[in-house]
Specification:
Length: 358
């Protein structure tokens, strides 16, 4: 058959085929655009981007220096810190959690400037809480601005997958306008900067941290389940590191105006705006897996903080304590513990960190 000769029937069908072709191309382009939303540079090596924070003997680097394994054993935990401070940015890593019995363990991926601004530091946290074998991992996000430790803005969730089986991407987007926490490409939380927040919204340059440590005193069932070192070492793996932002000297009194263009470029990225599809995914996640939100904790905040957007479907889920009405919905403790945050410098020497509010 000569494919360059068209019958009358083929000529009549050609517009239909052309239309179908255009639909396929358009659909493919849209899908590709969604996929490329996280098409960030992941070629950084550990030596280019991070340095040891504490217990270097428990940090293992791959031969190509693109994967870092942080260990917790009976001697110490371990941690790393970005080599630079950033004035806003997008920070991300593919992380695989420890397996087996992980009660009492905390793995953290976060931004902070506590070592430069000890009394008025900023911080954005993603903290993963281990559990007894067979129970799901839990995690929480938090925001502190200008030393507002007593006004932490924590939310707590249950994992919808086993994070110890495969690596998953965890990301923190931080701009002058909003902060978004992502798990893979699912936006799980957005904080939009409100004028009334004032210094409670993080605005000073921060470094990026990753740590693993023993939090037996509070992390699992209110401290009833301790780290069982029979299963040591506990290993968490970080790879595909992303540090996108304007590098600055945090001691400068006036931050360089050179960041203006880079911040504008950051804000223009696809992942700084949650799409309608992303809103649906976030709604699904929050209504199914969130088990505490400070926005609904009327005992702690008689008036919800200014950035809180009260969602009726979420409001129905929680009691005035900000905890679920249905206690049996999720496994694990809902008790709250406070984090001591005097200085991480001291904890570097001891191989651990202070506890996060639970």
């Amino acid at each position: 058959m000569d494919y360059f000769l068209y019958s009358p029937l083929q000529k009549r069908l050609s517009p239909l085929f052309l239309l179908l072709f255009l639909i396929i191309v358009t659909t493919t382009t849209t899908t590709l655009k969604t996929t490329l939303a996280f098409n960030v540079t992941t070629l950084m090596t550990f030596g280019e981007s991070y340095s040891p924070l504490f217990s270097e003997f428990n940090i293992q680097r791959s031969q190509d220096d693109k994967t870092v394994r942080l260990l917790l054993n009976r001697f110490s935990g371990s941690g790393i810190i970005s080599s630079d401070y950033y004035n806003y940015g997008f920070f991300s890593a593919n992380i695989k959690m420890p397996s087996e019995h992980t009660a009492g363990i905390v793995v953290a991926f976060y931004t902070s400037n506590v070592d430069t601004f000890e009394k008025n530091h900023d911080e954005l946290d993603i903290e993963f809480l281990g559990n007894i074998k067979g129970k799901p991992w839990r995690f929480q996000t938090n925001m502190y601005g200008n030393g507002s430790v007593s006004r932490g803005r924590e939310e707590r969730y249950r994992m919808w997958f086993d994070p110890s089986l495969d690596s998953h991407r965890y990301s923190i987007l931080w701009t002058p306008k909003n902060t978004i926490f992502y798990v893979d490409e699912v936006p799980i939380r957005e904080v939009i900067r409100h004028e009334a927040m004032r210094g409670d919204y993080p605005s000073k340059p921060m470094s990026v941290y990753a740590t693993i440590w023993d939090a037996s005193s509070w992390a699992t069932n209110g401290g009833k389940e301790k780290v069982d070192y029979k299963y040591e070492p506990f290993v968490t793996e970080f790879k595909d590191l992303v540090l996108e932002g304007c590098i600055v000297d945090p001691t400068d009194q006036i931050l360089s105006s050179n960041c203006t263009d880079q911040i504008a470029q950051l804000i223009s990225k696809d992942y700084t705006t949650i799409t309608p599809e992303g809103r649906k995914s976030m709604k699904w996640f929050r209504e199914k897996y969130m088990y505490y939100s400070y926005c609904y904790d009327n005992l702690r905040y008689l008036v919800p903080p200014p950035e809180c957007v009260i969602v009726p479907s979420e409001r129905e889920m929680f009691k005035d304590t900000g905890r679920l009405r249905d206690k049996m919905k999720f496994a694990g403790s809902h008790r709250r513990h406070r984090r001591g945050r005097k200085s991480r410098r001291r904890n570097r020497n001891s191989g651990g960190e202070a506890a996060v509010a639970m």
